[in-house]
């Protein structure tokens, strides 16, 4: 008896598997009956371009590594480590409550990123008006127009010896004179031979000059630039200083003498470009080694490593960093200093009266690091949540602010508030935190009763309850063949029949046997089970496939294994594409018999019932020659429709044909009824499975029955097997 029972049970499981495989394929293939496999669009990944000429970040003096600047991002004008697009400022993080407790030491040397990507239009154009102080030199084109008692125009180029030649005037030198002096010189020369004339003098395309950038430059060498170029133009051409080069002591040498010393900090911090000298031919721009460095981190506007020049004090460094932020704590500043190249020491101080106390305003040394800390979060607040107008955190005076006060600050109680509230208080003790929870009668608290209108302490948590089972309204949708389809509210405990009656009842075209009822809670549960099963099946199939490929004894076996692996991949893809519908199979009948029956279930939020019209068709799918839909004829059996579909294929499992009924249940064709419904009705689907033995790899899958059952649930079908 026991052995016969086990054989019968195994046979039933095999039959269920055969049906479910075909049923799942039908679910994916038929429009409107399930989820269709979708191919996700491939996300096009873009690779940022490298910034040309960008210097390699060096470690900060304190030894912390620097984060490289994101490729393709515009350099920060002030030359510090740039913020990513959309990154919050220190104050934004402080307001949002996400201000970091630790100071970030990810700072870079100030100013060098200015040269990471020079603008293409920064260099002077050769076709621009020149000022009166422009110095004429060899290669300049001079245009002369004369009118009055005599007329003429000449275009001459300054020779290498600095002279020009004009008819009747002769040869004379112009190199080294300013453009203003050139106009006066030419007028004087023409006045010797002519009178009563006016003159206009202009310059053509400007000449180029050669200068040299040497020292600690990114790309030292000789550069040919416009004659209007300045020191900054040449620095951009050469990529600016190296991290080992000075930003504050850039020297311009002319004829062996230093004519100007340029400090880039004047430009970066003050916008001062007055010492940006216009270059002359053969000028040398020398970038000496970087001077002493000091870093500043924490709550300043521009944390960075700055080059010191002369005697620099702590306030000077803070000023270079743009000053302290609004969240800076003046009660503490820390200076880390390398002492005699031997050890690192730490000074602690404050900024409270540093402007008037020279002892606090320390003179900085090379490799010093100043840390400015943020204010501590010592706010005294309580949390109010629940049925109040404005839940949230509120500042209190411990022992003074009462429950009545905090309810007033929170905007008062809402109309659906319960009289009962709950207070949670945590007290620090030597043995650990002590938590007390006690109830408060809000009506008595608002009336001022001392035992309920208790004084609040820091970090108290007040929960204002709503009335029991409060909800404004719940909704359910009814669609299809009812008189007034739409989304309806319902009260707690209201049955499905009440919703149908409120929608006006069924129309004469309603096909109750095909009504579909779905529930969101059921859908979520089904989808979760499907996802878990699909992931487990993928692991099993992938592991078995790899082992079979490794142990293939011949090329033919290897090709067969590869074919099976491809079948497995396609099968897994179908499993992952399945989407649960959350269908619950209900036997919906006319209202006289449906009302109060076992299927007249209580409504839940998000329920949907769809009542279709009679499709008057029967579909045949699976191992037949012509899968299609046929006109339903009431007196015909399933074999009639199989014949209309061309009959069984050679691989069909004729003994295990199933009927997928429109009401969400299934039965074995020609056998006992499974569930409720007629033997074969309008809207049913005849499923002819393929012989399972042809899919050899499925025989080795563990838990195939359970997995296929979960996929059947995704199709919205309840399988009953006995």
Short description:
It is found in: Cell outer membrane. This protein is α+β, with helices and mostly antiparallel strands. The chain contains 14 helices and 30 strands.
Could you outline the blueprint of secondary structure elements for this entry?
Elements: H1 2-29, H2 90-95, E1 141-148, E2 152-157, E3 163-166, E4 170-173, H3 179-191, E5 197-203, E6 208-215, E7 221-226, H4 231-237, E8 250-254, E9 257-262, H5 264-270, E10 284-287, E11 293-298, E12 304-307, H6 314-320, E13 328-339, E14 343-349, E15 368-374, E16 381-386, E17 392-395, H7 403-409, E18 417-429, E19 432-441, H8 442-446, E20 461-466, E21 474-480, E22 486-490, H9 496-502, E23 516-518, H10 520-550, H11 555-577, E24 583-584, H12 591-594, E25 608-611, E26 617-622, E27 628-631, H13 638-644, E28 658-660, E29 666-668, E30 685-688, H14 704-714
Parallel strand pairs: 6-10, 11-15, 16-20, 21-25, 26-30
Antiparallel strand pairs: 1-2, 1-5, 3-4, 6-7, 8-9, 8-10, 11-12, 13-14, 13-15, 16-17, 18-19, 18-20, 21-22, 23-24, 23-25, 26-27, 28-29, 28-30
Helix pairs in contact: 1-14, 10-11, 10-14
